[in-house]
Design goal:
Layout lengths: L10 H16 L7 H12 L4 E8 L2 E7 L2 H13 L3 H8 L3 E3 L6 H5 L1 H9 L4 E8 L4 E9 L7 H19 L16 H4 L4 H14 L3 H14 L4 H9 L12
Antiparallel strand pairs: 1-2, 1-5, 3-4, 4-5
Helix pairs in contact: 1-7, 2-7, 3-6, 9-10, 9-11, 10-11
Length: 250
C-alpha cells in the first residue's frame, strides 16, 4: 500500500522535513550566497561531486553559482555548445538524467558535450528545472565522476533544492517603499559577467550584418574551435582584443 502524504512515513512528511532542513541551512545567508550554498548542500545530500545553478535567457545559461570550479566549467561548456542536459531540461521543463556519458544513448544524444565532460572527469550529469509546471526559468545541474542513476529519493531531494532556489528568485524584492531598487537585487551582480555574451553578440551582429541566432552560433563555434568558453571569448570581443570577419566561426 502506498503511504498517504500525511502518514508519518509518507512522502509528504518527508518533503516537509527536508524542506525545513534545507531552509535552516540557507537561513541567514545573504542573497548572493544562496546559490552557492544550495549547490554545496546538493553535493552533501546527493551522490554527486558537483552542482551549479543557472538561469536560462534566450537559450543561454547564466550561471548564478557553483559548488566547485569544475562544476562551473562544465556548465560553461554547455553554455558554449548550446547543447547538453541543462538545455534539454530547460526546453522540456522536466528533469533530464544523463546517467552515463562514457557510452550508450547519452553519448549519442550529446556527443560533443559527453566528450568535453568526460575529458574534465565528469561521467554523469543531471539537470532539474527551476520554475513551475508552465514556466522554466533555469536549471539545477548536478555532476558526478562515475556513471550512475539517481534514485527516486535522490530526485525528490534534487527537486527540493531546485524548489528553494526558485522560491528565492521569485521572492526577490523589486523596490523599497520609496521606489528605489531593492537592497537584495542580487541577480544583476551575479549575472554581470554574462552581460558580456550579449554585448559580444550585439557587436557581431553589427560587424557582420547577421541576426542574433547566427551571431551567437558563430561565437559558440569560435569558442569551441579554440578550446575556450563563450564567456571568455566574449570578454575579448567586448574588449576589442578580438574581431570577427565574415569567415570566422563558420
Amino acid at each position: 500500500m502506498r503511504p498517504r502524504d500525511d502518514h508519518p512515513g509518507g512522502p509528504g512528511r518527508e518533503r516537509a522535513a527536508s524542506a525545513d532542513a534545507l531552509g535552516e541551512i540557507v537561513r541567514g545567508a545573504g542573497p548572493g550566497e544562496i546559490p552557492v550554498r544550495l549547490c554545496e548542500v546538493a553535493v552533501e545530500l546527493l551522490p554527486v561531486s558537483g552542482a551549479s545553478v543557472s538561469l536560462h535567457s534566450a537559450g543561454l545559461p547564466v550561471q548564478l553559482g557553483a559548488s566547485s570550479a569544475r562544476a562551473a566549467y562544465i556548465t560553461e561548456v554547455q553554455a558554449t555548445l548550446g547543447d547538453g542536459p541543462c538545455r534539454s531540461a530547460a526546453e522540456s521543463g522536466t528533469p533530464v538524467l544523463a546517467r552515463d556519458l562514457t557510452g550508450g544513448q547519452d553519448v549519442l544524444r550529446w556527443p560533443v558535450f559527453a566528450q568535453e565532460a568526460t575529458a574534465a572527469g565528469v561521467r554523469a550529469s543531471y539537470s532539474v528545472p527551476l520554475g513551475n509546471e508552465t514556466v522554466c526559468v533555469g536549471t539545477l545541474d548536478l555532476y558526478r565522476d562515475s556513471p550512475g542513476d539517481l534514485t527516486d529519493r535522490d530526485l525528490r531531494t534534487a527537486r527540493l533544492v531546485a524548489g528553494l532556489m526558485t522560491a528565492a528568485l521569485i521572492q526577490l524584492p523589486h523596490s523599497d517603499e520609496e521606489g528605489r531598487p531593492g537592497s537584495e537585487e542580487w541577480l544583476n551582480g551575479l549575472a554581470a559577467d554574462h552581460d558580456q555574451v550579449y554585448q559580444a553578440t550585439g557587436m557581431l551582429m553589427a560587424q557582420l550584418g547577421i541576426g542574433t541566432d547566427e551571431a551567437l552560433a558563430r561565437l559558440r563555434a569560435y569558442s569551441y574551435a579554440h578550446g575556450r568558453t563563450a564567456l571568455d571569448v566574449s570578454g575579448d570581443v567586448v574588449g576589442h582584443r578580438l574581431r570577427f570577419d565574415r569567415d570566422q566561426g563558420e
